[in-house]
Write a structure and sequence with these properties.
heterodimer, A: 631 residues, alpha/beta, Rossmann fold, 4 domains, 44% helix, B: 81 residues, Non-ribosomal Peptide Synthetase Peptidyl Carrier Protein, Chain A, globular
């Protein structure tokens, strides 16, 4: 289980046969599904090319039914032709159809600056700039430590101007990469002490790249970090550099492709959100039902016991940065909970899990129940289980769930989850940090719901306060994050960068409102964003309407409508226009505008338009207090 | 490893890399016979051989190889050592 192998993917026993079967299939939808399945297994670079060639022959229409399209322009500084199949195949793994435009080697600036280059004709959704050592050394050799930082800042500053163009010109997402050290050390240990060494220069350059990425909102592909984990010799082969100017060996192509695809997936809000953990032999050694509280292996005193604690610590870290944890175990509920609460060495306690399902039903059924309870899609789940039979069952029954291969030795569990990159992020907010607690509170709410006799008294009992405010600089980052990751309760699924939203806010006629819901169990955080833009003849167009699924069924949408109506009226609106654009994930809001009393204007297969005249609209009574945020 | 075994393996590698099950590799097969055998795919062929046979060719050896006969000779040299 070593990188650059994608060791978390299962091996395919009969690749040749499976590929032949897929190729012979006349049903193109089924053929695509077979290719997606192959992409979720390990394969070497020749096999990747074979999957890719078959995929490229699948029609656009068929691809569009089950994959999300992303047009990626790559502006390289070395030969990357051999990496493109791996990027597309990794895309399949993440549910993406990545169409690639490959710029000429070392011509990023020219392509970006020329008004009519084929780059612009391609209309990229994202542009990946791959920097090189030459970029880092462009300013010459550093004369001292202060000079080193100034040189790096200068080098990155010049590149920034180029990188910003796709974002500013067409709103494309920008991805940049750090530069790994591939050449042989000059002195050895002393390289670190010499400001003019390649090691020091690249270190300073990469630090400036990271700073630029965080300031400008680029997505960063940290190749330098990954090469450190993989090992330079496994990533780079000088012979292939001299032959073909390849900076990435074909044997590492699969990993490179996966790294690119996972960043694109994160940008599109498709990163995983929840880690579902088995208990016996996954969080501790042994079987609690057989071995008892004192018989399971966990904690100090045994190396294996410490390895399980280390895995729990890793899961806890993930949860602290916003990944939801759930447990799914074949056990009696009381026995499982007793182990979690009662064992002195347990690091993860009941409060760390959004949901604990321990029973004797099959795990596919239980994982579906977890997705429902936590209110996220199956494609947001990762399932970690030491038992190959359970993994196999879930892969077959619930192919949307990511199921990593777990090695026999628990010491390696954290590295499996980390290497697979399920939980990549586009930026961490305070909301992420509070999320696990929020899910915990949600479960208390669920309990209340089952106790309450009817919905109205349940809602009254929640003591809800919806605080609403105009989107401004302070809330911009969180607003944009919600815009880019909300998939289900999202009427139009339009994705915007911070710069784009800031531009919309420049107009006094833009209505952009956020909502934050507090109830007796706690703060749900920012859970709603609505953006309305002036349209024709006094009608304001609801360009964006999205909400967190955490607050479904709480009548927050009614409250938000009331707020938007009030705002738009103040600006002279006589009508609201609503639009629903169907995606694979937002079927739940197809009737959103009908439920809110809008009239249907037109309906097509994948889109409907609605209107609400404002002269007669009166806000209904709501089970919550609504107030405007001030200061 | 005898010559016929090497040819059987080369056949399989060529068929996979060029995705063409009709390819039959002989000692005289060269880039002229297989239109897709360009410098890019040449690297892929050599890497596939390295991967499946556990051998490693030097930069100089790779430069010399342009026909199947030369590939077989290079493999035989590696395997003898």
């Amino acid at each position: 289980m070593n990188l650059p192998e994608l060791h978390w993917l299962p091996k395919k026993s009969d690749f040749k046969g499976a590929l032949q079967l897929a190729r012979a299939d006349r049903d193109s939808a089924r053929q695509l599904q077979s290719l997606i399945q192959l992409s979720r297994c390990q394969s070497d670079f020749v096999q990747i090319s074979q999957i890719d060639r078959t995929f490229l022959a699948v029609s656009e229409d068929t691809r569009a039914t089950s994959l999300q399209k992303f047009r990626l322009a790559i502006l390289p500084s070395s030969t990357v032709d051999h990496l493109l199949p791996a990027i597309r195949v990794a895309g399949l793994r993440f549910g993406l159809d990545i169409e690639i435009y490959l710029g000429s080697y070392g011509q990023a600036r020219q392509e970006v600056e020329s008004e009519f280059s084929s780059l612009w004709q391609f209309r990229p959704d994202g542009v990946l700039f791959l920097s090189s050592q030459q970029d880092a050394f462009a300013g010459g050799s550093a004369q001292g430590w202060a000079d080193l930082d100034a040189l790096a800042e200068g080098a990155v500053g010049a590149l920034r101007a180029t990188w910003n163009v796709p974002r500013d010109r067409i709103g494309a997402r920008v991805l940049i990469s750090t530069v790994p050290l591939l050449s042989a050390p000059e002195f050895g240990n002393y390289d670190r002490l010499s400001p003019s060494s390649q090691l020091s220069m690249l270190g300073a350059f990469n630090a400036q790249l990271a700073r630029a990425a965080s300031e400008e909102g680029y997505q960063l592909l940290d190749l330098a970090g990954w090469v450190g984990r993989v090992g330079c010799r496994h990533w780079f082969d000088p012979a292939l550099w001299h032959h073909a100017k390849q900076e990435v060996r074909p044997q590492a192509a699969a990993l490179f492709g996966d790294l690119v695809a996972r960043q694109v997936a994160a940008l599109l809000g498709r990163a995983r959100k929840c880690l579902v953990l088995d208990l016996d032999n996954t969080l501790w050694g042994g079987v609690i039902g057989d071995d008892g509280l004192n018989g399971i292996v966990l904690g100090q005193g045994s190396a294996t016991g410490e390895a399980f604690v280390a895995f729990q610590r890793y899961a806890k870290k993930l949860s602290e940065r916003g990944v939801i944890l759930a447990a799914c175990s074949k056990n009696d509920d009381a026995v499982a909970r007793q182990a979690i609460s009662g064992h002195s060495e347990m690091l993860l306690r009941e409060r760390d899990f959004a949901c604990i399902v321990a029973n004797w039903d099959d795990k596919a059924k239980n994982i579906r129940a977890i997705a429902r309870a936590v209110n996220i899609g199956l494609d947001s789940l990762v399932f970690a289980d030491d038992n190959p039979a359970e993994r196999d069952l879930i892969r077959r029954e619930l192919p949307e769930v990511a199921v990593p291969e777990m090695p026999e030795d628990p010491a390696y569990f954290p590295y499996v989850i980390a290497d697979a990159g399920y939980f990549e992020s586009v930026g961490i907010t305070t909301e992420d940090l509070a999320r696990s607690r929020q899910y915990q509170e949600n479960l208390s709410r669920e309990r209340l719901k089952s106790e309450a006799t009817d919905m109205a008294s349940y809602l009254e009992g929640l003591d809800m306060t919806l605080t609403v405010g105009a989107v401004d600089a302070a809330q911009l980052m969180r607003t944009v994050q919600l815009i880019n990751k909300t998939n289900q309760f999202n009427l139009t699924t339009r994705r915007y960068s911070e710069a784009e939203v800031a531009e919309l806010l420049q107009s006094n006629f833009t209505v952009a409102v956020w909502g934050r819901l507090i109830d007796r169990f706690g703060d749900n955080g920012l859970i709603a964003v609505v953006i309305a833009l002036p349209g024709e003849a006094g009608a304001w167009r609801l360009d964006t309407w999205l909400m967190s699924c955490r607050v479904l069924g709480r009548q927050v949408e009614r409250a938000m409508l009331g707020v938007v109506v009030e705002r738009c009226r103040q600006l002279g609106a006589t009508e609201l226009r609503g639009e629903y654009v169907r995606t694979q994930k937002n079927g739940m809001v197809a009737d959103h505008y009908a439920k809110l009393g809008f009239e249907n204007v037109e309906t097509a297969i994948d889109r409907s338009v609605w209107r609400l005249p404002l002269d007669q609209y009166v806000n209904p009574p709501l089970p919550m207090t609504v107030k405007w945020y001030n200061g | 490893m005898v010559e016929s075994e090497i040819y059987a393996l080369l056949n399989e590698i060529f068929q996979d890399v060029f995705d063409d099950p009709s390819i039959e590799v002989t000692s005289t097969t060269s880039a002229a016979d297989i239109p897709a055998w360009d410098s890019f795919n040449n690297i892929n062929v050599i890497l596939a051989i390295e991967l499946r046979l556990g051998v490693k060719f030097t930069t100089g050896e790779i430069e010399q190889m342009s026909s199947a006969g030369e590939l077989v000779q290079a493999i035989e040299r590696k395997k003898k050592r």
